[in-house]
């Protein structure tokens, strides 16, 4: 198999790291997810990873807490996940660095764009924690921002569903899956790909998004090699 993309930004949800558990980290599941990441790295693909924190904390669900403080707690949750992913990759023999948007030098590098790119050029996987480092911005927006900053060819969003549908496939058995969409379709129809800030950022920087299921982690390799899985969102002429 030959990779289609030279440099990718992989967005992993916190929920995917919990596996069959409803909370926390299932390390066996993390290893399962990291094996195809190693396979992609071995093919020469340069990889950046943004991790969510929903398996530990969902601040938006608590209306009584100050939003800024709740978001800061979520950033710390992403750091736990980033360290877990890094440990799994290292156990598999992959060189990895964790960079966080909030400085915590004892456990991770501070995020520095040029250093992150240099790590990837040397074959190291870089895991980005703490989102953007700012409240009111999701980790999807962090993925779009980091993708733009490191000049990624594509954002690969590994989710709990196998693509983008016109309605919720969990509640509507007649929901229709899209193979491809434009960014304007996503924004105008309010489709659940990424939040509007993240989608707009990718659209403005002409970075496509591929949404696919992480239920089978080998889909990461298929996505990197350009196989027809999931839903691709891209800029088209009418955009």
From TrEMBL:
CDD domains: AAK_UMPK-PyrH-Ec. InterPro entries: AceGlu_kinase-like_sf, Asp/Glu/Uridylate_kinase, Uridylate_kinase, Uridylate_kinase_bac. ATP binds at residues 11-14, 54, 58, 159, 165, 168. Its EC number is 2.7.4.22. Keywords: ATP-binding, Cytoplasm, Kinase, Nucleotide-binding, Pyrimidine biosynthesis, Transferase. UMP binds at residues 53, 71, 132-139. GO terms for cellular component: cytoplasm. Residues 6-213 form the Aspartate/glutamate/uridylate kinase domain. GO terms for biological process: 'de novo' CTP biosynthetic process; UDP biosynthetic process. It is an enzyme of class 2 (transferase). It is found in: Cytoplasm. Pathway: Pyrimidine metabolism; CTP biosynthesis via de novo pathway; UDP from UMP (UMPK route): step 1/1. It catalyses: UMP + ATP = UDP + ADP. Inhibited by UTP. GO terms for molecular function: ATP binding; UMP kinase activity. Homohexamer. NCBIfam families: pyrH_bact. This is Uridylate kinase. It comes from Caproicibacter fermentans. The gene is pyrH.
């Amino acid at each position: 198999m030959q990779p289609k993309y030279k440099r990718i930004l992989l967005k992993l949800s916190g929920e995917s790291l919990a596996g069959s558990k409803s909370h926390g980290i299932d390390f066996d599941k993390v290893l399962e997810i990291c094996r195809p990441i190693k396979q992609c790295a071995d093919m020469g693909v340069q990889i950046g990873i943004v991790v969510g924190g929903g398996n530990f904390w969902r601040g938006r669900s608590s209306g009584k807490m100050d939003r800024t403080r709740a978001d800061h707690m979520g950033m710390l949750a992403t750091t736990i996940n980033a360290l877990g992913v890094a440990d799994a990759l290292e156990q598999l023999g992959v060189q990895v660095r964790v960079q966080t948007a909030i400085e915590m030098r004892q456990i991770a590098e501070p995020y520095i764009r040029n250093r992150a790119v240099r790590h990837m050029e040397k074959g190291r996987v870089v895991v980005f924690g703490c989102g953007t480092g700012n409240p009111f911005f999701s980790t999807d927006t962090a993925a779009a921002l980091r993708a733009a900053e490191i000049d990624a060819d594509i954002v690969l969003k590994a989710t709990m569903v196998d693509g983008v549908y016109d309605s919720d496939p969990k509640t509507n058995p007649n929901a229709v899956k899209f193979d491809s969409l434009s960014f304007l379709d996503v924004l105008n129809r309010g489709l659940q790909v990424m939040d509007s800030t993240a989608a707009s950022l990718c659209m403005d920087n002409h970075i496509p998004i591929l949404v696919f299921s992480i239920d089978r982690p080998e889909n990461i390799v298929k996505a990197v090699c350009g196989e027809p899985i999931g839903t691709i969102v891209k800029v088209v002429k009418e955009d």
